[in-house]
Amino acid sequence: MGTKIVSTEQVAAELRRAVIQKRKQYVMGGALVNGFAKLNSAFPALADLLMMNQYGKKLQSFFGKARGAETKSSLALKAGLAMVIFSVALYGVIFSLPLVPISTANKLALTPVLMVVSEIVFWVGGALAGRDVVSRYRNYLDPREWCKPKEKAS
Questions:
Q1: Which of 30, 41, 56, 107 could form a disulfide with 52 if both were Cys (CB 3.0 to 4.6 A apart)?
Q2: What is the pLDDT of residues 28-63, one digit of tens each?
């Protein structure tokens, strides 16, 4: 992983040095590690971004995937979201059919076809994007959720 393994004698010497200096906190590893620890205490989001971009894949390959975590490729996620958005656009076409200058019989024939195609596109897009993404965006699009007061995280 790129982290140097040190001997127990070195750890004992560093621990002894921390006790002699009467330090409550002591970071072993030199100036770079100390600097990164200070960056983490001042700006944890920035430290996480820097660290996880560099070591995230290494950590995942070392420890394995989290149980129940689904990872989707970027292309599959984007294609799935595009298909879900396209299905919503198809429903918009259904509502604009009365304004289109075609016969009423054609409008009546197109409406169920567009509805079925829209549902198929939605579910295929949902399968590509993943269950978590679809349930999150379903809550955003549900009108019943718009007027509910937001819960405060404690």
A1: 56
A2: 776 777 777 777 778 777 777 776 666 666 666 666
The answer to whether the CB of 72 falls within 8 A of the CB of 130 is yes
Q: Which residue type is seen at 139?
A: N
Tens of pLDDT, residue by residue over 95-137, are: 999 998 999 999 999 999 999 999 999 888 888 887 777 677 7
CB 32 within 8 A of CB 25: no
Three-point CA angle 113, 115, 118, nearest 5° = 105
